[in-house]
Amino acid sequence: MLYFSKVKLFVIYSLIIFLSIFSITNFINTEKNFITSKKINLGLDLQGGSYLLLEVDSQPIINRNLQEKLLQLRKYFKKNNIKYKNLTLKNKKIIFHLTKEDIKKFEKIFFEEENTINNYYDIYRSHEMTFSVSELNSIENLATISYTKFGLIEIKNSTLDQSLEIVRRRIDEVGTNEPTIIKRGNDRILIELPGLDDPNRIKRLLGKTANLTFRLVSESEDNFGSELLSYEESEQKLNISKRILLSGDNLITAKPSFDNQNNETTVNFSLDRVGTKKFARATINNVGKRLAIILDNKIMSAPVIKEPIVGGNGVITGNFTFQSATDLALLLRSGALPAPLNIIEERTVGPDLGEDSIRAGAISLAIGFLLVIFYMFVKYKLLGIIANIALITNLILLIGILTIFEATLTLPGIAGIILTVGMAVDANVLIFERIKEEMKIEKSNIHAFDTGYKKAQSAILDANITTLISAIILFFLGSGPVKGFAVTLGIGILTTLFCAYFFARHLSSIYVMKNKDKQISI
Amino acid sequence: MISLADKNIKFSFFYKKLNFLSIILIILSIAVLLFKGLNLGVDFKGGTLIEIRSESTIVKISEIRESFLKMNLGDVTVKNFGKKNDYLVKIEINKSEDENFIKSINDKLSNDLGSVVNFRRVENVGPKVSKELLNAGLLAISLSLAAMLFYIWIRFEWQFSLGAIVALMHDVIITLGIFSLLSYEVNLSIVAAVLTIVGYSMNDTVVIFDRVRENLKKYSKISIAEISDLSTNQTLSRTLITSVTTLLALLSIYIFGGAILKGFSFAMIVGVIVGTYSSIFVATPILKYTKVNQNTVLKDDEKNN
Predict the structure, then answer these.
(1) Over 70: is that where the pLDDT of A222 sits?
(2) Which chain A residue lies closest to B47 (C-alpha atoms)?
(3) Which of B143, B250, B256 is closest, CB to CB, to A363?
(4) What's the ipTM?
(5) pLDDT tens, A351-361?
C-alpha cells in the first residue's frame, strides 16, 4: 500500500495541480484570454434575486378548442348530410344525438388515421379525441366526444411552448441580468432572475395575458352579439360588440409617447399590412361610432372614430402614467399569452441578505476549518499535519471541481463544504487509528502503516458510500438551495476519498520511509 | 486478547438499561409528534414568509404584530430573527396570484410603523407546490433509508442490516421529536439535515460493524457480547474523534453561519450526537439479540467464494 509507481504519482499530482488552477482562477478576476474564465455560480440565496414558478392555466384553451371542434363538427354534419340533434358542450365534453346507423358511419370516419376532425398522433399512437356511445331510445344514441389523455398533453405542450416564448420576450424586454427561463413538466415555467430584488414589475407583466382587441361600442340596447364590459380604472360599463375588428396579433410595434396637445401619456402602435387593411376598412365603415380598445376584457378607452385611419398607425389613450404606458407597450410588442399564468411559488432574496449570508458562510467555514485543523494537530501531531495538508488540498480540489462544472453555490452548499471539512478527516482518522493498533503488534513501522491502510479500506469505503447515497438522493429529489447542499456534500466525499487514499497515503509513505527505524508516536 | 484495545469499557453491560431509555425516548418522540406535530414551514404548509429589517431600531415586535393583524391575513407569527431589528413573519395565506400582495403588505407596514421596512427575503409558496415539496421530502427520506438498508444487506448479513436500520429510525424519530418538542420550524433544509444524519449515522454504524465482522472471523470462542465490546472499544477513539471534528464544524455553522442555517445546523448537531450514541448502543446490541456468531459471517464468505 505504500509503494507508488511513477505513473501513478504523475497522475495524482497532475490532477491536484490541474484542479488547483481552476480553484485559484475562481478567486481572481480573470480576463477572457487568461487560462480559464470558469467560475462558481452563486445561487439566488447568495447573490440575491427572484425565483418564480408559473403554472399555465390551460383550461380556457381547452374550452376554446372544444368550442372550435363543435363548429367543425356542425359543418361536417351539414356537408355529409348527417342529421344530428342537441349538439352542445357539457362538462368539457361535446355531446349530441344521432341515429344508430349514422353513429356507425360516423364512428368509422372518426377513427380513421387521416381525417379532418380528429387528429392522429403518431408518437403517442393515439387520436386527439375519444368517442363513446350510449343508448337513448330505440332509434337514437347519445354520442360523447372528449379529449384523450394525449390530446390534452398535446394542448398543454403547445400552450406551454407558446407561453414560454412570450414570457421570454417580456422578460428580455425588461432587460434583467442573465435570466433563466425554462420549462418544468408540461404546464410550468421556472424563472430565475439574479440580482432582481423587487420582482413586482415582472410579476405584473407576467400576470397579464395582454389580449388586445378593437371592437365597436354596441348601439342597440339588446344584448345579442354584445357583452357588458367595464373600464380598467372605473366601475363604468359599456355594451361592447362581440365582433372583433382587429386583434393584437396584427400589431408590429408599440411605444409610449407623450401627447403635448392634451398633456397626456399615450401608447402609439403601428400595424402590419393585413392589420392596416382591416383597420382601414373598419374605420371607413364606422365613422362617427365609438371604437373600444379592450385589453384582457377591460376597456382601455373608447374614442369616437372621427375619420378613417388608413395609415396603419393608431394611438391608445387611457390615464396612463409613463410607467404604465411603457409596460403596456412592452406587453403589446411581445404579444399575448395563449393562456393565463399563475405564480405558484415565489422566492426573493434581497442583495444585502445575500451578502450577509456569504459573509456568515465564509466566517463559519474559516472558523470550522481552523478548529478541525487545530484539533487534528493536537491529536496526531506530525501525522495530524499530513491529515491537515490533505484537508486543505481537499478543499482546493472541491472548489476546483465546482468551478469546472460551474456549479451553483448556495448557502446550504456552503454548509455542505463545512460539513465536508468536519467529516473529511474521518478517513484519515480511521487509517491512523488502525496504524496505531498495528504498531502495537508490528515491529516494523513500514508494515504497520501498510497493514493500517489495507485494513481501514473497507470501513472507509462503506462509510463514505452510505453518505454518498444520501447526497445522490438529495440531489435528485431536493430543490433549489438544498440541491446545492447535495452537490457540495457529494463532490466533497469524492475528493475526500481521493485525498485520503492517494494524496495523504503518499505523504505518509514518504514520512514512514524516512523514519522507518525511529520510534513513531501517534 | 481483549486487552488489544486501548480502553476496555463494558458497553454490553449498559445495553439493557440504555435500550430501555431509547425505547422511552422513541415513544415520547412519537407521542410529541402525534399530539403536538411538527411546526411545518411555508415550504411544506404553503403561505408567505417575509424576513423584515426595519430601518429604525425603536420598532417594537408588538407593533409589527398589530400591523399584520389589521391586514386580516389569517394566522400570522412574528418573531425576532438574528439581529435586533430583523424579524421573520410567517403568514398563513398565500396570495401568489395577486401580484401586488407583497407590495401592499410593505406599504401598509411602513405606514403603520412610520418608518421604511426592507423586505430582505420573501417566500411565497402555493398549496400545490407545498404539497409536492412535502411529498418529495418524505420520499427522499424513505428512499435513503431503503437504499441504506439495501446497501448494508449486500455488504453484511441481515442481522447487521436490521441493526443499522433500527438505529437510523431511532435517530430520525428522536431528532424530529426534539424539533416537535421545541417547535422548531421544519423546512427544506431540515430534510437535507435529516438525510445527512442518515448518512452520518450509517457511516458510524458501519465502521463498528466492519470491525465486529472482522473480529468474529478472527475469534471463534468469544461471545458476541464480548466481540461487540472489543470492537466498540477498538473503534471508540475514531468514533469520538470524528464526532468531535464534525461537531466542531457544525458548531461553527450554528454560531457564525447566520440565522438561516440555525435550524439546519441544530438538527445536524442533535443528529450527530444521537447517531454516535445509536451506533454503539442501538445498532450493536441488535447483533447480540439476533444471536450473531462466527457462522453468520463465515457462511457469507462461502457464498461469496
Answers:
(1) no
(2) A345
(3) B256
(4) 0.88
(5) 889 999 999 99
> pLDDT-based confidence at A314, cuts 50/70/90?
confident
pLDDT of residue A296: 87
Give the Å distances, CA to CA, from A351 to A50, A193, A356, B26, B100.
10, 12, 9, 43, 21
- Please tell me the distance from the alpha carbon of residue A124 to that of residue A420, in angstroms, as a whole number: 47
Q: Which CATH architecture has domain B2-40+130-304?
A: Up-down Bundle (1.20)
Tally of CB atoms within 10 A around B116: 12
Question: What are the backbone dihedrals phi and psi of residue A314, each rounded to the nearest 5 degrees, phi first?
Answer: -145, 170
Q: Can you give the pTM of this predicted structure?
A: 0.85
Answer yes or no: are the C-beta atoms of A51 and A346 closer than 8 Å. Answer: yes
Residues B57-74: tens digit of each pLDDT: 778 888 888 888 888 888
Helix then strand then coil, % of chain B, to nearest 5: 70, 10, 20
Shortest Cα–Cα distance, A70 to chain B (Å): 32
Planar angle of CA A185, A191, A196, nearest 5 degrees: 165
Residues of B whose CB is below 8 A from A344: 96, 125-126, 128-129
Domain-by-domain residue ranges, chain B?
A: 2-40+130-304, 47-124
CATH code at A6-47+350-514: 1.20.1640.10
Residues 54-113 of B with CB under 8 A from A: 96-97, 99-100, 102-103
Residue listed under C-alpha cell 411565497: B124
Interface size A-B, in CB pairs within 8 Å, comes to 230
CATH number of this structure's domain B47-124: 3.30.70.3400
Query: Helix (H) and strand (E) counts for chain A?
Result: 13, 21
pLDDT at B1: 38
The CATH number for A212-319, chosen from 3.40.50.11810, 3.30.1360.200, 3.30.465.10, 3.40.50.300, is: 3.30.1360.200
